[in-house]
Amino acid sequence: MKKILYTIVCLLALQGCEIVNDIPYPIVEAAITGFEVEGQRAEETGGNVQATISQQNRTVTLYVDDSVDLSELRVTRLVISEEAELIPDSASCKDYAHFPREGFESLDDLPRSMDTRMDFTGPVRFTLRTYQNYEWTVKVEQIIDRDIVIENQIGEPVIDVENRRAIVYVSPDQPLDAIAVTTFDLGGPHGKVVPDPVEYDTFDFSEPREFYVSYGWEEASYPWTVYVYQRESTGATGDVSVRVTTASLSGTIQNGKTPVVEYKEESAAVWTTLEASSVSVSGTRYTAIFNGLQAGTAYCYRVSVDGVSGEEQSFTTAPATPLENGGFEDWSEEAVGSQTQYNPWAMGATSFWSTGNGGSAPFIGSITTPTDDSVSGKAAHLQSRWAAIKLAAGNIFTGDFALDGTNGIITMGRPFTTFPTGLRFYYKYTPSKVNRIREDRLEYLRNQNDSCHVYMALTTDRYVVRTARGESFDRNDPSVIAYGEFASSQSQSTYKLVEIELEYYDMKKTPNYLIIVCSSSKYGDFFTGGDESEMWLDEMELVYE
User: Fold this and answer.
1) How far is CA 181 from the centre of its chain?
2) Strand runs (DSSP E) across 431-509, as ranges?
3) What single-letter DSSP state applies at residue 336?
4) What residues have CB less than 8 Å from 356, skipping those under 6 apart?
5) How far apart are CA 254 and CA 262, in angstroms?
6) Which of 138, 445, 455, 484 could lock 434 by a disulfide, CB 3.0 to 4.6 Å apart?
C-alpha cells in the first residue's frame, strides 16, 4: 500500500510539473515567386510569356505551346520563399519521391536523379510549409495555334476542333483543283499532317479532303476533313483597338492582296494615306498602326483593295485624363488628440490621394505633410519615423487607408479608364541607413542606404493590402494590366525630374483603376527602412505619348 501511495504521489507531482508550450508559432508567409515549364509561351501574340502569379489568391497561371504533353510536363523553374518547404501534389508527380522539396532557379541546380515532370491536365496543388501550410494552385493551359493559308484565300479559316473539320474560302477565280498551300497547321506548328499539302506545288480541293493529324507530343493521328469553297470577297475587314494618341487596326484580307488604309479627323475634308511601313500583311491577316493622333478625338478610316474603297468606319481616341491634385497643392488638417493629421485633399472635397497618417498621427504626428519646399506652390514631404513599436514609412497613394489595430488596411486604386504611357514627377531624397527590420529575410538591408520608391499600375480591380498579414502589392497579379516603377537609394539634394515608363502586360484590356504609390522607404510595407529617411514630391503628372 505504501508503494502504491508513493507511486500516486509521484505521478501527481509529475503532472503538476508538466510543461505546456503555449508560445504561439510565428506567422511566416510563404509564396511562389517564379514558375516556368517546358514550352511556355504567351497567351497571345505580343503578350507576356511570364506566368501570372497572384499572391493574394495563391494561384499561378501560365500557357504552353503545342510541343509539350500536359500529362508529363516538366517544371524548369520553381522559386519559393526561402523559409518554406515545398510539398508537391503526389498524385500529379511522375515520381513523387524524386520531386524537389525546395525551390530551384533551373534544372541545372538539381541532381540528375530529380524528376520534375507533373500531370498538368488539371489544376495542380502545391503546399508551402513554414510554421503554417500555404496551399497554392497552378493552372496550365495549352494553346494550339491551328491555321490554314492557301492561294487567294478570303478571310480566316473556320476550324471546328470538336468535329475535326475546317472550311476555307477562296475567290471565285481560284481553281479548286490546283491550289498552292503555304500553311496547313491543323495540329499546331509542331504537329504533323498526312498528306501535307505544303509539300506539293498545288493541291486538289475540288472535293472534301481527309487528312490525318497528329500533335507535336504524340504519334497517334486523328482524321480531319477540309472543305474549300469559292465566294465573293467582301474586301478588308477589321477591328480597331484605341489608345490616347495611337490606334491599331487588325483584320483579314484576301491572300495575296495589299490593303491601302486612309484616315482623317471626322470634321476634316481631306483623307491621309497611312504610310506603307505602318501596314503589315501576313497571309490573310493585316495590321495597320495609326500614330500621332489627338486625344479624345473622333476619326474616320477606310480600307481600299485593288482601288475599291471599303465602307467608311470610325473610332474615337481615349481622353488624356489629367492626374488629380498631382501638384499636391490641396491639403486639409484635423486634430487627433494633441497631434495634427494632414490629409492630401481640400477640406470638404472627395479624396483622391490618401496616406497612412491615420495610423501614425495619434502617436508621432503625420509622416506625410505639405511643404513650401517645392518646385511650385506646395509639395508632399514624406518622412520615415520610428513609431514606438514599428517603423512608419512616409507615404502617399491613390486609394483609402483604414486602421486594423496598430496595422493598416490599404485599398489601392481610383476609377480610371484611359491609357497613359508613363508618370512624370520631381523628387528630392535624403536616405538614412536601414536600422529598422521587421523580417529576417530583409536582414541583408541592415546598414545599407534606404531607398525611396514610386510605382504606378493600371488594374481591372482595386487592390487590398493588409499589413498585419505581411502583404504587399503584387505586380504579377492577374488584375494588373500595366506597371512601372522608380527606386533610388542615392541622396538627391535638389529637385530632379523623373519619368517612369509604363509597361503594358495586356494591350487588349481597358483598365478600371489607377494605382500610384510613393514611399520614403521602399520596404516600409514590411516595416523595414531607415527611421530618418525623407522624400519630397512635386508636379506629378500622367504622360500620354
Assistant:
1) 38
2) 452-459, 463-466, 480-488, 492-501, 503-504
3) E
4) 367, 368, 392, 393, 395, 401, 408, 410
5) 18
6) 445
For residue 372, give every residue at least 6 positions away whose Cβ sits within 8 Å of its Cβ, in sequence order, or none: 378, 379
pTM of the full predicted structure? 0.75
> At 8, which helix (H) or strand (E)?
helix 2-16
- If DSSP codes are grouped into helix, strand and coil, which group holds residue 442? helix
CA 118 to chain centre: 25
Q: What is the residue whose three cell numbers read 489627338?
A: 294
Phi, psi of 70 (to 5 degrees): -60, -25
Q: Give me the architecture of the 32-142 domain, per CATH.
A: Sandwich (2.60)
How many Cβ atoms are within 10 Å of 163's Cβ, its own excluded?
Answer: 8
DSSP state of 162: T
Q: Which has the closest alpha carbon to 313: 251, 401, 403, 398?
A: 251
Contact in structure between 237 and 251 (CB atoms under 8 Å): yes
Instruction: Report how many helices (DSSP H) and strands (DSSP E) the chain contains, helices first.
Output: 2, 43
3-state secondary structure of 221: coil
Span 332-543 CATH architecture: Sandwich (2.60)
Q: Where are the beta strands (DSSP E) in 256-297?
A: 260-265, 272-273, 279-282, 285-290
3-state secondary structure at position 371? strand
Domain ranges of the chain: 32-142, 147-230, 240-316, 332-543
Q: Is 147-230 in CATH node 2.60.40.2340?
A: yes
Grid coordinates given for 22: 503555449
d(CA 450, CA 429): 10
Q: Do domains 240-316 and 332-543 have the same CATH topology?
A: no
Alpha helices in 436-524 (DSSP H): none
Reduced to 3 states, what is the DSSP secondary structure of residue 114? coil
- Please name the fold of domain 240-316: Immunoglobulin-like (2.60.40)
